[in-house]
Amino acid sequence: MHHLLIYDISEDKIRNRVAETCKDYGLVRVQYSSFYGRLPRTRLRDLERAMVRLLRQGQGNVIIVPVCEACRAGIVKLESEAL
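-> structure tokens emitted (83 positions)
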């Protein structure tokens, strides 16, 4: 299943580690603090544990949202150049 991961972390060091961890799990950055990609169940659990370990080092939050196939079909991307 695909997931959207978004985070709000004030400390640069931890925020950068969160971003690098997302990349390590094959997620792709879609906004400055958001990543998207396919995560099988076991990888998702591993990523959740990795995020918990990182969040213990400072303040912040991570939200992981599952994106079903029907929702994926409805994704709309708007860019300023296209408007």
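The radius of gyration is 14 Å.
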